[in-house]
Amino acid sequence: MSTDTNTTAETTTEQATESTGDDSGGCTAKSSDGSSKQESVDEKIGSTVDDFDADPGQLTAVGLGPGHPEGMTQRARAALLEAEHIVGYTTYIELLPDEITEEADELYDTPMCGEVSRTEEAIDRALAGNDVAIIGSGDPNVYALSGLALEIIESKGATASMVDYEVVPGVPAAQSCSALLGAPLVNDTVSISLSDHLVPMPEIESRLHSAAGESFTIVIYNPWSRKRRENFQKCCEILLAHRDPDTPVGIVHGAGREDEEVMITTLGELEALGEAEIIDMTTTILVGNEETYVWDDRMVTPRGYETKYDY
Ligand SMILES: C[S@@+](CC[C@H](N)C(=O)[O-])C[C@H]1O[C@@H](n2cnc3c(N)ncnc32)[C@H](O)[C@@H]1O
Question: Which residue stretches does the UniProt record annotate as biased composition, category Low complexity (predicted)?
């Protein structure tokens, strides 16, 4: 097994570009002249399907679940053990159990950001004849790379069938975190990411208003980073404009990881926790609906059984 750690996405993006890999979530890229640019400006698709002579291998997008080996599905483990090359963000490669990394021929990891170049690297390796797994936390269809992979395959003039593209689902953070909090997501739920890297903040605000104005429980992904403090503050203001300050809120940091931390608080207290350690890039926040309550240190959102049955 060989390990290939990249900071320059060498085969597919401009050589002079290096991801800063901080926790900004803003994915600023730094050029060799020292100037900062948005990553999307720098990442470009390089090769096309015509550049490859080999019979393509397989490409599989694998969701790891929350992070601990027990949280990974059997199907994900089997897909990773079968893969010749495993491609992913450095943190996720580091989360893989030894039995998987030792079995792979090559590991290719890049720091935070660089999603486009990392995904293209995985596709190019598959088009070059290797069986490749591209990994991510949770599920590949939740704010992750499964759609991007299909878009890039198409832009290369290839097809999904050519690389036998498959998605292996994983347990998303909403569900891992919900399980640690009791039963907060048992009824209709909306997920919203506060990352404005790809979606402009006014659009995120509009989505927050819509969700908070209806009776959904709300899952907040990407709640905070040093460069996005204002997004978190704005989110708290919008939620409070629609919901009672006593609304229960669950906060889970690092579900299934060594630094896992769980807290149940109220919407009125949430904004003040923005600077606390529990809220960062690896935190998911679950905001109850108007029926959610806290019982015995657990969040409970009734499904409605009590309206039909006596118990
Ligand atoms: C780019 S999204 C990826 C989501 C992932 N695909 C999923 O299905 O959960 C990253 C966000 O997921 C959430 N997240 C990922 N892993 C987590 C964990 N172990 N504990 C709590 N939240 C997590 C955080 O909100 C983080 O900012």
Answer: 1-19
